[in-house]
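Thread: Newbie trying to understand structure tokens

Hi all, I'm a second-year student working on a class project, and my supervisor (Dr. K.) asked me to get a predicted structure for one chain before our next meeting. I've only ever worked with sequences, so writing a 3D structure as a token string is new to me. If someone could post the tokens and maybe explain what I'm looking at, I'd be very grateful. Here's the chain:
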Amino acid sequence: MVKAVVFDMDGLMFDTERVFVQAWDYAGEKIGIGKAGYMVLKTLGLNIHATREIWQREYGDRYSEEDLRKYTKEFVQEYYRNHKTPVKKGLYNLLNYLKNAGYPLGIATSSSRLEVEKHLANAGITDRFQAIATGDVIKNSKPAPDLYIKACELLNVAPECCIALEDSRNGILSANAAGCKTIMVPDLWQPDEQVEKLLYARCDNLDDVITVFATLNS
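---
Reply by user tm_fold:
Sure, no problem. This is what the structure looks like when written as tokens:
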């Protein structure tokens, strides 16, 4: 029986991963390594510590982490001065449906608490979530199960009674390892055969997730 729903954030609720592609393209050119937006695909679902390790393996001493952060922040701040957080298709409809159906909602994201609060406030949905587990307070990044286990603990619901909504390989592996049933809504990455076998369902957008829940309750 499904008793709660836990959302990923970047790429699932918000189209923020594409913003980071642009930011790392910009920062890469500024620091002399060329466009580096492709690194978003290599680091999907990872927290800052795991992401740093991937960058080190990719570029070693050919880049300055301090300069990368500086120019990434410069681009992102300028972007959000001129744009609201880009909301994924169907998010508001799905949140309204789940609220009316009585599901408690959580978030399990590798992003920081500050980033989560900023995007939720920008989208006007801060009050929709009863539990938030973030990458800056969890030791092990996705694909480890820690974030989903923590979110379920905060919701006081066993993982096997939770639906996880995800868009990345690392996120799906994390939710599956925690024991959640996972619905995937692909964003930048399309699932391979291995990941497809782990999914409870796959949807084209968040509006389609409503259909899955309607079937659950029928």
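A couple of things are worth pointing out once you decode it. The mean pLDDT is 95. Strands lie at 4-7, 105-109, 131-134, 162-166, 181-184, 201-202. Feel free to ask follow-ups in this thread.
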